[in-house]
Design goal:
The structure holds two protein chains of two kinds.
Chain A (H helix, E strand, L loop, with lengths): L2 H11 L5 H21 L3 H7 L3 H11 L2 H8 L8 H9 L1 H53 L2 H50 L2
Chain B lengths: L2 H15 L5 E2 H8 L7 H13 L3 E8 L2 E8 L1 H32 L1
Antiparallel strand pairs in B: 1-3, 2-3
Helix pairs in contact in B: 1-3
The chains are: A mainly alpha, B alpha+beta.
């Protein structure tokens, strides 16, 4: 590939990224190609050496925050016609409401996920409280009725206390796992934007 | 090597390449070549990162009828190199301690 072809291909591929970033990238890679040519490589070799357009675009995408990527993906490639603009405005009660409902749904899902996690942690907390409270009550029971029933109750309370720590560690383990899944999921989403490109 | 660690280390390598005097992109790659293989597309985000964190400054100058970008290290960049060398002095003494134990075992 000649330098011109490469520069044009790269410019096309980077369409939608902030103008300043694109300009800097093109200058940089242009400079790198020229350096290699001066070093003795042929134009084609130099272009091949600096990397493919896809590689470069992937690097730049990976370094760009997701918000900018979204802006890039949804940049209008052509101006809207009057008809399209009118449709957008007239239909706004519909799509605006759908958008709000959609966002509310996502938010609700997110909140319910973490509410679920918080509820999960309630288990060890309740074991702990129940166990300690049970021990206290077993003493009262033993004093007010028979020692036998007091001891039996204390036994049950001790079991609850014993379950507190293991259940706490189980919750911690699950929560960590959920966080890892969440992060991996986010990475997949970002990758999806990289692959699909402009 | 852990990807986060590699990322940080490559930044340091680039700073080291411009620590004595200013340099330009291709020269940096050639200087690093005996130690670490780095491509143009890997170097580019590193230079951008270092510039935005004020570890280096860039100036454009004419060379052979075209523009060449020269990178100069800043005080902040030098400080970062210093931090790195101190962290790794500690790392090296720990490594020596670990390897010492292993040599004793072999005997």
């Amino acid at each position: 590939m000649k330098k011109n072809e490469f520069t044009i291909a790269l410019a096309v591929r980077l369409k939608g990224f902030p103008e300043e970033d694109v300009k800097k990238s093109l200058e940089y890679y242009g400079e790198m190609i020229d350096e290699r040519i001066e070093d003795g490589m042929s134009e084609e070799e130099a272009v091949a050496a600096v990397g493919t357009v896809e590689e470069i675009a992937a690097q730049i995408t990976a370094e760009t925050p997701l918000l900018q990527l979204l802006k890039q993906k949804f940049t209008m490639k052509r101006k809207l016609t009057a008809g399209e603009k009118a449709l957008l405005i007239c239909g706004s009660p519909l799509w605006a409401i759908l958008l709000i409902v959609g966002l509310a749904l996502v938010f609700a899902l997110y909140v319910s996920l973490w509410a679920g996690v918080a509820a999960m942690f309630a288990v060890p907390v309740l074991f702990g409280i129940g166990g300690v409270g049970g021990l206290v009550y077993s003493v009262i029971l033993g004093v007010s009725t028979t020692w036998g029933s007091g001891v039996a109750f204390a036994g049950a309370a001790l079991i609850l206390i014993g379950l507190t720590l293991p259940s706490y560690y189980a919750c911690k383990f699950i929560a960590k796992g959920l966080i890892k899944v969440g992060v991996a999921f986010w990475r997949c989403i970002k990758k999806a934007f990289v692959k699909k490109g402009v | 090597m852990d990807i986060q660690m590699k990322r940080g280390i490559l930044d340091i390598c680039v700073l080291a390449a411009i620590k004595k005097e200013e340099s330009y992109g291709y020269q940096i790659i050639k200087e690093m070549k005996p130690y670490v293989d780095i491509s143009e597309s890997t170097l580019y985000p590193i230079l951008r990162r270092l510039e935005s964190s004020n570890c280096l400054t860039v100036r454009s100058a004419e060379y052979n009828g075209r523009l060449r970008r020269y990178y100069t290290i800043t005080q902040a960049g030098k400080n970062r190199l210093k931090e790195f060398s101190e962290e790794w002095k500690e790392m090296i003494s720990i490594y020596q301690f670990v390897m010492k134990g292993e040599e004793d075992e072999k005997e």
